[in-house]
């Protein structure tokens, strides 16, 4: 299935490139298998090295409830109401909607390697903040039952279909894993027992003790993840499973898990069992671990051990769906982690190296910062850090805006093209936040706090190329260039010229090389780009931005394009 999926993936991308200037849907409809070239050796080498694969990956992050409504019949499941404050109700997005866009080829058109969805687990049934405007658990981070799917998002069949369809296209699926807290307490959602959770003190984030053994916010019970004391299951969970007719099955599975592992029946091990079941059953390829700095780092090492086993079990049971030999990937949200600090995260009173505790990568908060550094200084630092010294073989995931970061790089979408250039040409893995490519607004009147970053996907702007016209085309070209050339994310960065800014990225893997040259801030019209000896005379190169081809002559390549950006590489 993997080979067929990769062929389909390349066919769609080839069709989109051939249909430059036409609508996305018409481009996809023009694809033909006969036009697809074999997977190049560089791709085979890329998937043989986990650090190279993930540092060259493009991850698409979406809030499932805000992306696409594929099944309106589940919009108000479990008595949900759209009576919340602005952007704080369920709005109808679901797993079927994500699947629809996946099968349409939308993610292929962006060169996406992995889709990260917000948690799909069943959420608390009630709402909070009654006095200041209701908030429902549309975002997925307020878990009620780790063993069930949130009905407003769909069913287990929907989830299975989505993961299988992604794998058929060579796209991985990231599960958002929560182990730090339960959902808030509401009249419909009793608090979990006191041997499971703490309800205070509230974190003040000044030191390790004021960041870890505490509650993130008021009314968000914190799981006692460091406790080894055996506990009984919460009565509300037992009652729910009995009502749903699956109590005996769930209890029997827990008996087997604890007998096989020898773990005490402590809170964290119950949750690890539930989280890894989804990987063992559906074949998720990665975890994004939520609030990773807010629970003891040793817990992550235990989770990684269990999920590695679950992923291996899934591979053995589903050989026809296995993409390749890459192991399970786990990256963490260590809030405010910056690649500039290397492996260490500083709590003020102590530092923690999260890479020593099962994490293959961390989310990098640094790229969304506005500072005085040039792009070349940023790119040089990232490339050097990831290729040399203590960070070699590790990964980071950068972004320019997200669902709960109050400091996006371009909050008013003044420069969505610049945001795309900054992100998609950055060394290391990158995260597109849903709607970045359409300049979806991050300023919604009446929305307070992080709600303003969580508006519904602006599909109405698709045909015109985004809320700022032309944005989508720009992001697609850069993202496909990145997907075609792993050197962009995982290669060695070298500045070739200051003005106009020209740089190269070079990647050598097992004797297979990938080399690209990027030129920025050029004048529209005729232009000659020096290749600085990286390509011999006579080499045919393609500019992935304009689609033009040229031959290297006298250590340079001459093109005539209407754009200020040139993306050069050998055709793949």
Please outline the helices and strands.
Layout: H1 2-18, H2 24-29, H3 41-46, H4 50-55, E1 58-62, H5 95-104, E2 114-117, E3 121-123, E4 143-149, H6 156-168, E5 172-177, E6 197-198, E7 222-223, H7 235-243, H8 247-261, H9 267-282, E8 286-289, H10 297-317, E9 329-332, E10 344-346, E11 351-353, E12 361-364, H11 375-387, E13 395-398, H12 416-424, E14 429-433, H13 471-484, H14 487-490, E15 492-497, E16 502-509, E17 512-519, E18 525-530, E19 540-543, E20 549-551, E21 556-561, E22 566-569
Parallel strand pairs: 1-2, 1-14, 2-5, 5-8, 8-9, 9-12, 12-13, 13-14
Antiparallel strand pairs: 3-4, 6-7, 10-11, 15-16, 16-17, 17-22, 18-21, 19-20, 19-22
Key structural traits:
572 residues; alpha/beta; TIM Barrel; Immunoglobulin-like; 8-stranded parallel barrel; 6-stranded antiparallel beta sheet; 18% strand; globular
Question: Could you characterize what this model shows?
Answer:
The structure is a single chain. The chain is built from 14 helices and 22 strands. The protein is an alpha/beta fold. The chain has 2 domains: 417 residues, TIM Barrel (Alpha-Beta Barrel); 81 residues, Sandwich (Immunoglobulin-like). The strands form 6 sheets. Strands 1-2-5-8-9-12-13-14 form an 8-stranded parallel beta barrel. A 6-stranded antiparallel beta sheet has the order 15-16-17-22-19-20. It has a two-stranded antiparallel sheet with strand order 3-4. Strand 13, helix 12 and strand 14 form a beta-alpha-beta unit. Helix 5 packs parallel to helix 6, helix 9 packs parallel to helix 10 and helix 12 packs parallel to helix 13. The longest helix has 21 residues. The protein is globular and about 75 Å long. The N terminus is likely disordered.
């Amino acid at each position: 299935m993997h080979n067929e999926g990769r062929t389909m993936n390349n066919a769609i991308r080839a069709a989109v490139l051939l249909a430059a200037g036409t609508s996305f849907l018409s481009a996809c409809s023009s694809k033909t298998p006969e036009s697809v070239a074999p997977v190049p050796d560089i791709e085979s080498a890329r998937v043989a090295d986990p650090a190279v694969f993930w540092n060259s990956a493009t991850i698409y992050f979406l809030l499932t409830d805000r992306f696409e409504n594929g099944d309106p019949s589940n919009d108000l499941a479990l008595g949900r109401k759209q009576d919340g404050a602005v952007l704080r109700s369920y709005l109808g997005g679901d797993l079927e909607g994500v699947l629809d866009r996946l099968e349409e080829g939308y993610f292929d058109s962006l060169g996406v390697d992995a889709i990260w969805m917000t948690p799909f687990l069943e959420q608390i049934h009630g709402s909070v903040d009654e006095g200041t405007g209701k908030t429902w658990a549309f975002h997925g981070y307020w878990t009620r039952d780790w063993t069930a799917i949130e009905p407003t998002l769909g069913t287990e069949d929907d989830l299975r279909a989505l993961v299988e369809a992604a794998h058929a296209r060579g796209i991985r699926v990231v599960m958002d894993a929560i182990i730090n807290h339960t959902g808030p307490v509401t009249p419909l959602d009793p608090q979990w027992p006191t041997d499971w959770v703490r309800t205070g003190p509230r974190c003040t984030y000044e030191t390790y003790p004021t960041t870890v053994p505490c509650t993130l916010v008021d009314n968000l019970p914190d799981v006692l993840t460091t406790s080894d004391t055996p506990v009984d299951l919460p009565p509300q969970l037992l009652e729910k499973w009995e009502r749903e007719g699956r109590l005996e099955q769930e209890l029997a599975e827990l008996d087997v898990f604890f007998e096989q592992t020898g773990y005490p029946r402590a809170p964290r091990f119950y949750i690890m069992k539930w989280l890894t079941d989804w990987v063992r059953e559906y074949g998720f390829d990665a975890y994004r671990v939520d609030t990773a700095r807010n629970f003891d780092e040793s817990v992550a090492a235990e989770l990684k051990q269990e999920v590695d086993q679950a992923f291996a079990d899934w591979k053995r049971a589903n050989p026809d769906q296995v993409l390749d030999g890459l192991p399970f990937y786990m990256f963490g949200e260590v809030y405010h982690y910056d690649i500039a600090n290397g492996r260490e995260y500083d709590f003020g009173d102590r530092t923690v190296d999260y890479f020593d505790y099962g994490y293959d990568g961390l989310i990098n908060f640094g790229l969304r910062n506005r500072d005085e550094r040039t792009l070349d200084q940023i790119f040089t630092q990232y490339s050097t850090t990831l290729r040399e010294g203590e960070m070699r073989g590790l990964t980071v995931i950068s972004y320019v805006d997200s669902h709960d970061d109050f400091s996006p790089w371009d909050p008013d979408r003044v420069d969505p093209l610049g945001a795309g250039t900054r992100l998609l040409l950055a060394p290391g893995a990158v995260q597109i936040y849903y709607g970045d490519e359409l300049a979806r607004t991050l300023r919604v009147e009446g929305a307070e706090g992080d709600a303003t970053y969580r508006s519904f996907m602006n599909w109405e702007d698709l045909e015109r190329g985004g809320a700022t016209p032309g944005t989508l085309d720009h992001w697609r070209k850069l993202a496909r260039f990145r997907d075609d050339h792993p050197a962009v994310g995982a290669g060695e960065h070298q500045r070739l010229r200051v003005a106009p800014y020209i740089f190269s990225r070079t990647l050598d893997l097992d004797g297979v090389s990938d080399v690209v040259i990027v030129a920025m801030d050029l004048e529209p019209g005729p232009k000659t780009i020096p290749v600085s000896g990286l390509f011999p005379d006579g080499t045919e190169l393609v500019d992935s931005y304009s689609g033009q081809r040229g031959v290297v002559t006298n250590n340079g390549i001459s093109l005539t394009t209407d754009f200020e950006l040139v993306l050069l590489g050998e055709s793949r």
